[in-house]
Design goal:
Distance between the termini of chain A: 20 Å
Number of domains of chain A: 2
Oligomer: homodimer
CATH topology of the largest domain in chain A: Amino acid/polyamine transporter I
CATH architecture of the largest domain in chain A: Up-down Bundle
Helix content of chain A: 55-70%
Largest sheet of chain A: 5 strands, parallel
Strand order of the largest sheet of chain A: 3-2-1-4-5
Radius of gyration of chain A: 32 Å
CATH class of the largest domain in chain A: Mainly Alpha
CATH superfamily of the largest domain in chain A: Amino acid/polyamine transporter I
C-alpha cells in the first residue's frame, strides 16, 4: 500500500539511461537555479531604503549603494563563471575550496551553504505565505499548515519526481514574474522620459554629514542590499544537471541571470529615486512602485500574486542546490554516503528529504516568522563566496593561464569585498540571530569530520585483499554449535530443528528461558517426548526477562568455544499472513536478534514458518 | 542509555516471589479502587440539581431522586459483592458474563468497560486541570501540557513502578478528601440540629405538575446523578490484587465504599436541600455548600485544592481497573496476548501504556474539554452493570445456593434498573456524543473476535504433536543452497564465505545486484581474483533498486529447487561500535532481511563483522 501511494506521488522509477534526457536546457535552468536571486528584487531595494531613509540627508547615496551592489554582483557572477570553468564537475565553493584550499575551508563552505540553503527554503516559504495572508487575512490561523503543505506536497514531491518535472512546474511563473517586473520598469521609464512625469518632491535637507555614523549606516544599507545576491552560487553547485556542453551553458546562464538581476535592480532603484518613494509600514516598496506606475488596478493585483508565487519558487533554488552539494560531500565521505545515491527517479532523494525536514523544523521552531528567520540569513552565502573566490585566486596562480593576473585580480577583489560583507552582516545581525549560524557552522564542520573519520575506520576494517581473503579462509574450520531458543514446542521449532540437522552442526542446544517454573516443567516434559536426543537447557529468569538470560548464556558459550568455532542462533519465527497480525505478537524474535548481534560475535538465523491464514 | 532512564523512572525489576507482598490491604485498596466513585460527590448532586432546579416546582423531588440513587448504589454494590464471591479470580462483568451468558455479552461488557475506563482517565484529568486553572487562570494556555504531564509522569510512571508504590502515592489525598467532606457534612448538621440554623428560603410555587414532561425531567436528573456510580466495578475487576483472603477483603471494601459514598451523597444533598442552595454559573454546588458552612476562608480553599487532587486520582481507578481486565481478555485470546504479561515491576505494563495512549488521544482530540468528553461517559459502565447482574441471576439459578431466590431478586432488580439507566443515558446524551460509544462498542467487539480468530489460526498452525514432529523430521533432508549478496568484496563478505563453507552447503551463489555497470565489472574482476571457485551471479538493476532484483532471483531459485531443499541467504553485515554510526549506513541489510522473510520461504542468516572502532 505504501508502495502504491509513493508510486502515485513520485512516479515510476527511471533507468540510468534516462539521466541524459533528464538534463536541462538553459532556458529551463535559468528559472530553476535563479528564482531565489531574481525574486530578491522584491525586497532588495527596500532593504537598502529602510536604512538610508532613516536620515533624509543620506538619500543622495541610494544610487551609489545600488551601483556598488550591482558591481559586486558583477564581480561575484564573473567569479562564479570562472568557478564553473575551473570546476565543471559541479559542487561550487565546496569543490573548488577542496581543490585549492584544503579540507577545512571546504567544510566551512559546505556547512555555510548547508545552513543557508535550509534557511532559503524556510524564509522563502514563510514570506510567500506571509504575502498570501496579507491578501487573504482569513488564512492567518492556518499559516503553518500552508507552509508545511507547500513544503511537502509541492516542493518535496515535485523535486522527488525528478528534475524535468520540477522544472516544467516552475518555469513559467518565473518568466511571467520577470515579464511583469520589466513591464513595470519600462512603463516607468516611458513615463519618465517620454511623458516627462514629474519627479517626486525631495525634502530639503542639509548636505549629508560625513561622520563615522554615516559610514556605518551606508555599510549596513549595502550589506542589507546584498541579500539580493543569495542564490548566485546555485548554478555552480548544479553544473552536472545542465545539458552538454555543460560548463558553457552554466556560464552563459550565470551571465544572463546576473544581467537580468542587475537590470531589474538598477531600473527599480532608478524609478524609486526618481519618484522619491519612501518606505511605508505594511506596504512593500515594490508594490508602492507598481501602484505609482499603474495605479491600483488589475495589473497591480496580478503583480502582487506573481510576487507571492515567485517567493515559493525561490525555495526551489535550494532544492536544486543542496542535494547535489550533499552528493559531492557524500562522495568525499563527509556526510552519510546515501546522500550520494540517486533515487528511483534519478533525483538525490535523501538530500531532498533532509532539506525538507530541516526547513520544516526551522519553520515550526520559528513559528513561520520571516523577520526572525531572516536574521540568520546571508552569513553562510557570503562566507562561501569568500572561500570560493580565495580558492580561485590560488587556481589562477597555479594554472597561470593567459591573462591569469586579470582573472586573479577580479577574484581577489571579490574575495576582499565579500569578506567585508561577511563582517558587516555579522556585526549588524549578530545579536538578532547570526550568532546561531556562528555556532552551527563549527558544529557542522565537527560532524563532517567525525563522519569522515568513521568512514575511514570502516574502510580500513572492511578492505579485503587477496592475501586477507586467504588469511580469513585458511585456518581450519572449527566446530559449529547451533542454539535454538524454544518458548514452547511448536511447528516453528520443528522447522528450526529440521534446518539445524540439515546444516550438520557439531552440537545443538535447545534452550528455554523459564519465566514461570510450572510452565517450564511442562515445556521440558513435552520436549523430552519430541526430541530426546537434544537436551533442553533450562535458563531461570525470575524477573520475567526473555533476552537478558539468553544473552548471558550465549556469552558464556562464546567464551568456552574456540575463536575458529562458530555459533549460530536459530530463531524459530512465524511470518503472519497479514500485516496487522504482527501487532498481535510481541516482537521478541526481532528484539532478540538485534540484541544478540549488538553484543555477541555469533551468526543469527531466522527460520520462518509462513502462516497460510 | 534508554535502559538507565527507564530504570530510574520505573525502578529495578521485581521477582515473581514479590507478587504476594505487592498485594494490597483493604485500607489501601479503598482509595486505590474507589477514588473515582468517591470523587463523584464533587459533581453528582450538582448533576441532579442542574436538571431539577430548572423548574422550581420540581424542587420537592430532589430528596427522592437522591434516595433512589442511593438505593440503586446499594443494589449495585450488593450485586458486585456477589460478583466477587462468584468470581474470585477477578475480571468483573467480563468474566462473569463469559461464564454465564456466553462470548458476545462478555465482549460487549469488555468493550463497554474498555471505553469507559479510557474516558474516566480523560475526564478526570481534564476536570482536575480545569479545577486548577479556575484557581490559577495564568495556567490556562498550558492546560494540555498539564494534562499530558499528569497523565504520563504521574499516573503512567507510578503505575508502571508497581501497585504498592502507586498506592502509597495515592492513599493519603483520598483520605484527606474524605475527611474534608465529612467535616463539611458534620459542621453543616451541627449548625442545623444544634445551632438551629435558619433554613434557606423556598420560592413559593404551585404544586408540582405531574405530566409526561415532568417524569422525563425526573428520569434525566436520576440518570445524571448516576454518574456518581462509575467506578463501582473497579474492585470486582481487581480482586487478584487484594491481600488474602482476597474475596472477603474485596467484598468488605466494596461495602465500605458504598457506605461512605451513600453517606456523603445523602449528607451533602440533605444540606443542599436544607439551605436551599441553587446552581450558580461558574461555581460548583459543592463549593457553594462549603462556603455556606465555613465561609470563604482557609478551609474553603483547602477543600477546593483537595477536590482538584482527588479528581486526578480518580483517573488512577482506571489504571487499577483496565490493565487487569485486559489481562483477563488476553488470557482468553480476545486482545493481544502481551496484555497478559507482567512487566519487570509485576504491573501489567502494556495495559498501562495502552490506557495512557488512549486517554492522551482523547484529551488531545477533545482539546481537554470536559463538557464534550462527559457526553460520552457512563453508557459503558451501566451497560456492563446490566450484563454483570443478568449473569448473576443465571448464576443463582444454576447454583441454587441457600436463599438463592432473594439474591436473584436483588440482581434481577439491579439488572432492570440499570437497563433503564442505560436507556435514559442513551436518550438524553445520544446527540451530544453517546453515539460515538454506540459505534465504538460494536467495532471493539468485532476486533476482539478477529483477534481471537487469529490466535485460533495461529494455534492450529503451530500446534505440534509427537507425530507431527516426526512427520516434519522424516523426509530426507534435501540439498542446501546458500546465497550471499555481495555489494563489494569486503572483510564482511569474507566472513560470510567462511561461514558458508563451514555449514557445507550443496552450492554457494554469490550475487551482485548491479546498479552501475562500470562498478559491476570492477566487482566481478575483484571477485574472480579472490574466489574463482564460486561464480558471482550478476543481476542487472537499471532502476538502482537493491532488494527487488534479489527477491526475484531468490523467487526463481526457490521454485527451481525441491520442497525439501533449503535455501539460506547469508547477509554479510557489519555491526558498528557506536549507535550513531548506524545513521551513517543505509539499512539495506535489515530491509533486505524483512522483505525476504515477508515474501519467501527461505532462511535468512546475518553474519556479523563487529567493528572495533
Amino acid at each position: 500500500m505504501f508502495r502504491t501511494i509513493s508510486r502515485w506521488l513520485i512516479g515510476k522509477p527511471l533507468e540510468n539511461e534516462r539521466m541524459e534526457s533528464e538534463r536541462i536546457p538553459k532556458w529551463k535552468a535559468l528559472p530553476i537555479f535563479s528564482s531565489d536571486a531574481l525574486s530578491s528584487v522584491g525586497y532588495g531595494p527596500e532593504q537598502i531604503a529602510l536604512i538610508l531613509f532613516s536620515i533624509p540627508a543620506l538619500y543622495a547615496y541610494f544610487g551609489a549603494v545600488v551601483v556598488a551592489i550591482i558591481i559586486l554582483l558583477g564581480i561575484v557572477a564573473l567569479s562564479y563563471s570562472q568557478v564553473i570553468k575551473a570546476n565543471p564537475g559541479g559542487g561550487g565553493s565546496y569543490a573548488i575550496a577542496m581543490k585549492y584550499l584544503g579540507v577545512y575551508p571546504a567544510l566551512v563552505a559546505g556547512a555555510s551553504l548547508f545552513s543557508d540553503y535550509i534557511l532559503t527554503v524556510a524564509v522563502s516559504i514563510s514570506s510567500g505565505t506571509a504575502a498570501i495572508i496579507s491578501a487573504f487575512p482569513i488564512l492567518a490561523p492556518y499559516h503553518l499548515y500552508l507552509d508545511i503543505f507547500v513544503l511537502v506536497f509541492v516542493l518535496m514531491i515535485f523535486n522527488l519526481r525528478g528534475v524535468q518535472e520540477a522544472s516544467t512546474m516552475f518555469v513559467w511563473p518565473t518568466y511571467i514574474f520577470l515579464g511583469a517586473v520589466f513591464l513595470t520598469i519600462f512603463s516607468g521609464l516611458y513615463q519618465v522620459f517620454i511623458l516627462n512625469a514629474t519627479p517626486g518632491v525631495v525634502a530639503v535637507s542639509d548636505s549629508p554629514p560625513m561622520g563615522m555614523f554615516t559610514v556605518l549606516l551606508l555599510l549596513r544599507a549595502f550589506a542589507n542590499g546584498c541579500s539580493s545576491m543569495t542564490g548566485v552560487e546555485a548554478i555552480a553547485d548544479g553544473v552536472p544537471l545542465f545539458k552538454a556542453p555543460q560548463e558553457r551553458n552554466a556560464m552563459i546562464t550565470t551571465g544572463i541571470m546576473a544581467a537580468i538581476l542587475a537590470c531589474m535592480l538598477g531600473g527599480i532603484s532608478y524609478l524609486i529615486i526618481y519618484f522619491h518613494l519612501l518606505p511605508v509600514e505594511g506596504v512593500t516598496l515594490m508594490s508602492e512602485l507598481v501602484q505609482h506606475v499603474f495605479g491600483r488596478n488589475i495589473i497591480f493585483y496580478f503583480i502582487q500574486v506573481m510576487t507571492m508565487i515567485i517567493l515559493y519558487l525561490a525555495a526551489n533554488t535550494a532544492y536544486n542546490g543542496l542535494p547535489p552539494l550533499l552528493s559531492f560531500m557524500a562522495r568525499d565521505g563527509y556526510v552519510p554516503r546515501y546522500f550520494g545515491n540517486r533515487g528511483e527517479r534519478l533525483s538525490f532523494s535523501n538530500g531532498i528529504v533532509l532539506l525538507t525536514i530541516g526547513a520544516a523544523i526551522l519553520i515550526l521552531g520559528f513559528n513561520g516568522n520571516v523577520e526572525h528567520l531572516i536574521s540568520l540569513y546571508a552569513v553562510g552565502v557570503f562566507l562561501s563566496f569568500t572561500i570560493a573566490q580565495t580558492a580561485m585566486v590560488i587556481h589562477w596562480h597555479k594554472t597561470r593561464e593567459h591573462n591569469w593576473k586579470i582573472y586573479a585580480l577580479i577574484n581577489g577583489t571579490g574575495a576582499v569585498v565579500t569578506t567585508f560583507v561577511v563582517i558587516i552582516v555579522l556585526i549588524t545581525k549578530f545579536i538578532y540571530g547570526a550568532w546561531i549560524i556562528c555556532l552551527l557552522i563549527p558544529v557542522l564542520v565537527y560532524l563532517f569530520i567525525k563522519v569522515h573519520k568513521h568512514y575511514n575506520d570502516v574502510r580500513d576494517q572492511l578492505v579485503l585483499t587477496s592475501e586477507g581473503y586467504k588469511e580469513t579462509m585458511v585456518p581450519a574450520l572449527g566446530r559449529h554449535i547451533v542454539v535454538i531458543p524454544v518458548a514452547s514446542p511448536t511447528q516453528a521449532v520443528a522447522r528450526a530443528m529440521r534446518y539445524a540437522k540439515m546444516i550438520r552442526p557439531y552440537k545443538i542446544y535447545a534452550v528455554h528461558v523459564c519465566t514461570d517454573v510450572a510452565r517450564g516443567e511442562k515445556v521440558k516434559k513435552l520436549w523430552e517426548d519430541l526430541e530426546p536426543s537434544v537436551q533442553l537447557v533450562m535458563i531461570p529468569s525470575p524477573y520475567r526477562q526473555l533476552t537478558d538470560p539468553l544473552i548471558r548464556f550465549l556469552y558464556r558459550l562464546r567464551r568456552r568455544v574456540g575463536p575458529q568455532d562458530a555459533i549460530t542462533v536459530l530463531i524459530p519465527e512465524f511470518e503472519p499472513k497479514k500485516l496487522w497480525h504482527r501487532l498481535l505478537h510481541n516482537q521478541s524474535g526481532s528484539i532478540l536478534r538485534l540484541r544478540i548481534l549488538n553484543y555477541l560475535d555469533v551468526v543469527v538465523s531466522t527460520v520462518p514458518l509462513k502462516f497460510k491464514r
